[in-house]
Amino acid sequence: MAEDSRIEQGMYLDLKDRMTYGAYLQLPLLLSAQQPLTAEHDELLFVIVHHVQELWLKLTAHELEAAISAIQRDELAEAFKSTARVTRIQEQLIQAWDVLSTMTPADYLKFRGALGAASGFQSYQYRLVEFRLGAKDAKMLLPHRHDAETHAMLDKALNARSIYDEALALLARRGFAIPAEAVERDFSVVRPFDERVRDIWAGIYRESERYFDLYQLAEELVDIEDWFQQWRFRHVKTVQRIIGGKPGTGGSSGISYLKTALDRSFFPELWDVRTVL
Predict the structure, then answer these.
(1) Whole-model pTM?
(2) Which one of 14, 39, 85, 263 has the largest count of C-beta atoms within 10 Å of its C-beta?
(3) What is the mean pLDDT of residues 20-31?
């Protein structure tokens, strides 16, 4: 009872000039960022879901950067900590679509016109995540030409090694016969599928006990892509549910563009390994 009393007394201390929960999290700033442009009830839902997704994307990019750095240092245990966290974040990203899908087409049409040229296609954090996973496309920098700082950040990521590029460089350092053109190349473009790389991964899978950390690295990467594709699928179905086949805001083609992403792979050799084992 005495302990409970002390805890209660601590809860009601005068917090003037002390660090508080709200101050630490900058809640006035965070909660003032939701500024709907209309009086429509569901616009607040739309804004908050996208804010939440952007926060999770920020953490995803942060963890991918840490994983890439750890792989460069050959510290795979540290990399696995970050990749595991990324997959848990991706679960939350998928669930966000479930919340947004409670909005009906009629609800969305009430405020859609206020969005103007704004589109999720312009999310630079999403683009940063894609670049760090290896989905490189210089055209994706174009929507950010007006923002020099963001453009420079994305351009750096575009030309840097992705997490899969670093995995292949690690295999080369470990003595595997990774083709030179897979590790020394223009990293701003997508590397084509290479059977030689697939066969090296297949050998690692076949001797998984001998190469267990590399086998685990491969499976961590497959996990990330698996969850990412589930997120993409839920995105497609949510958009289809709300706007059907209409063009997206900001000039995108909408559902047809989103569907094309479902056919693209970050780590093609790791998926093809399943076929040849």
Answers:
(1) 0.90
(2) 85
(3) 95
